[in-house]
Design goal:
By secondary structure, chain A is an alpha/beta fold. Chain A is 31% helix and 30% strand. Chain A folds into two domains: 82 residues, ACT domain (Alpha-Beta Plaits, 2-Layer Sandwich); 194 residues, Rossmann fold, CATH 3.40.50. The first copy, chain A, has a seven-stranded mixed beta sheet, with helices on both faces. Chain A is globular and about 60 Å long. At the A-B interface, strand 11 and strand 13 of A face strand 11 and strand 13 of B.
Chain lengths: 284, 284, 284, 284
């Protein structure tokens, strides 16, 4: 399992891409175990591809493979690409406020080996969850945020995240992060919004849903961009509700949705299944 | 089956309502076969109730029952109420433009006896579906609509609908009806909107959904009010989509959703299951 | 909240039941906040009813209310009935083997106040989960079971459960309990089976599902009876699978289903929403 | 659109297959527009692949392409393969008894261009649906079946189907066809069974579901084999039911499920998305 590599490609579509990529890999002794591709349009569209391959019989080193791929294939097709290895376990930081259900779901799945990562740090603007988090072996950082200290607080957060945080997950973190902060984790920061976006963006979506009288509530996991609740959507889910449910009932049903939707989105990100293109996602 | 009556009640909540209503009906030899109730709040909330009962052994005439109910129960509890009989088969008019799938679904279910109504008239701003509709035994009225003739067109429509249309269904009718016209069918005109409202109100919702990159599409059946796509929601449904679907695929998947969601909403309306309260619905 | 009472009734259907019950309660100053009823057939069928009411203004003691109800209403209609009070918090014992996901889900929801009970005891045939359980404040009892000691083991379990266990939940407990043991908890012992029953009863249902090539997997929560995996079904759920999933993937997707389905079933049982009748359930 | 070709491959998995196939197609001027692959196990497993490609710039004739593919690629990898062209519109025969909803759904989708086929013949053991079918332009054959005439009836059916029926769909056809008849349409005869198989195989599945008290009903589309209701499953769906539904309600809800599930299965078959392997299906 430690020898699985994943290659993600985005490039202008034209004939011959799949043949070139798979021919190159085969010629280097690589065994492709999964391959997905998509084109927005075979003529003049954009082409996306994800390959998983095993590297035990690879005839070159990783840097050599990457250099050769760049020269022989990637440059020729003007590819945007990245090659990752499952042995480079991703380091995840989770942000949380008071509602702990999404955080707990992630810690729990991590503890059970259901998501392939290390949850290194949990950052919160409340001290409440310290003990629950440390029990799982993650560090807990209580960083209060107010109108006045936002810049210092974000500096303290960046200090914690350091250079080696691969993914940031906002697991019901109720503070708005600055554009500068967000831009440090471009397509690497995932938020769970407690509505079926684009409906009910902003504050208190379950109250908004109640007032509107919808018959389904939703949850949306998306990458964070500077536009609040407007980044590329990764995954969504819905659940039936009726006139019998009050706002607290919606929140209860919503918690279950949020846990599931966020867990799927994080899992897919960790498995390098997601390509972002023009504020939308391709999820292989 | 022709002897089923349905009583719908809305009133301020307070103790004793159920006992008063059921006691009254029992004392008149009525056999209650279904009873649903809901309260927004037992203290100071609003109370809703739906009863179905059979009337073969009723000891009074319908008018007498209604008069007695008003005096003995309804006035005492300040009830908004209505009593309907399944033997008064509702007359339905369907409006349609070019997309026929929702219309056909309704005609078909009517022909099979799955919805309890008579589809008397179909009105369209296109002549195309005349033959398909007449085959089912409904009248087809081609009433073209343009910027210039809207008032005359609506007058012609009202002429067709006459005094005895109980329900109007907008089955993908792409013209906007005037507020005056809409107000003739308060809580009796049902529209199917091809999105998960309140997301993507207005024109071309599947294109909007595609551009936003949502992972679920939806359809919403609602009562029509003067606010475009803003009336009380009756029913909603969603279906999974992915990057693999283009706008035409979304429309295709959406057609199936629209048919199902509209058919459920119309069926519930025909069975007198819906109470509208403050721009929301209680669906028993 | 501590003053909510719930009345569950099963009796032969005939006119006047609702009027009699609600009239009786109203006459004693009770405020009904929820009422559900169902009849298998208005003539000669069986009638089911659930009422929730608040008792702050009740004019009699509980025993007096119950005695009066028996005399005035229940005997007259030949009712099977029970009256419970939400202030009598139910005591739950959970049985588990090695797979901890269902147990953890219940402990977690209990800790968050999402299910109204006290989880007093956890019994397992493995010692592994002791620490995880005790952290929540529940007692952990490691009772190994083998072919030879089954009778002693069950005696030890009954010893733990004592006289005051209201509900037993088999949360992926992989030992088969004897008919004698099961009969101590008639309609009070809930099992989660990892398939869409009646398909794939018995051992290793995910393997069976894989071999059959189904496109949906399921989970079923049911009351335990002497017939293995054959008791009254409380709740079921399904999830889509495809040729891409191996048995381990099915188990992973299934864990999420099992957690949700079992949690709903336990919540409904704790809220006295379930009536068992002829090996089926009415869930109000 | 008339120039889309589809290549389906099953073979023992080993490195180099994708490179060989895509390299071959590229060298002949073919533009691959969709590619899916799956392996049961990269070492010693079975490999499946589906390609869609456009042939306007193909440098050889179809027979020449096929001959070259056989020699250069297929034989080398011991492939089971087939190459189809969307311009060879498939001819479909539908079998039906009295329940017309599945038949009508297929006729309707065909008329709207939602499924790519020609429905040439409808065969029924009842005369009732003749007019409804002929209106769509398909031929209707009333072939009564009894215990005594089964062999003659099947001979008459084969006569109708002739040599040019590509697909047979059993759209709620309630007669059991002989093994000999079934074997004429190996992996080309699709049945809709009105339950979530393998639960409730055989007669009257909604009655069985009602008696068992399930909380979800289902429908299953599968290829027909000699084992009744036991062939490879193509697609399944479920819908929630409760104690409120009687057998007729289940049938009504089930009709909607059956229509949708069968329509998806037929569409996938017509688009050559399905590979059968060891009584299971791979659906790309």
């Amino acid at each position: 399992m430690d020898s699985v590599a994943r290659l993600l490609i985005t490039c202008p579509d034209r004939p011959g891409i799949v043949a070139a990529v798979t021919g190159f890999l085969y010629s280097h002794g690589v065994n492709i175990t999964a391959l997905d591709q998509h084109s927005t349009d075979p003529s003049d569209g954009t082409f996306f591809m994800r390959l998983e391959f095993q590297t035990p019989h690879m005839d070159v080193t990783r840097p050599a493979l990457e250099a050769a791929f760049r020269t022989v294939v990637a440059d020729r097709f003007h590819m945007d690409w990245r090659l990752t290895y499952s042995s480079d376990t991703k380091k995840v930081a989770v942000f949380v406020s008071r509602e702990e259900h999404c955080l707990m779901e992630l810690l729990w799945r991590w503890a059970r080996g259901e998501i392939d990562c290390t949850i290194t740090n949990v950052i919160s603007n409340h001290p409440d969850l310290k003990e629950a988090v440390e029990r799982f072996g993650a560090a807990y950082h209580y960083i209060p945020v107010s109108k006045d200290n936002k810049a210092e607080a974000e500096a303290a957060m960046l200090d914690v995240l350091g250079q080696d945080t691969d993914v940031v997950v906002l697991a019901r973190y109720m503070q708005i992060l600055s554009g500068d902060f967000v831009s440090c984790f471009d397509h690497r920061m995932i938020n769970i919004h407690h509505s079926f976006l684009p409906a009910f963006a902003g504050a208190d979506p379950y109250r908004q849903a109640m007032d509107k009288g919808v018959k389904l509530i939703g949850a949306t996991a998306h990458y964070v961009t500077e536009e609040l609740d407007g980044g590329p959507i990764i995954e969504q889910g819905t659940a039936r509700v009726s006139h019998r449910h009050n706002v607290d009932d919606l929140k209860g049903l919503g918690r279950d949705l949020e846990r599931q939707v966020l867990a799927r989105a994080v899992k897919w990100h960790l498995e390098d299944r997601i390509i972002v293109f023009r504020n939308k996602t391709v999820v292989f």
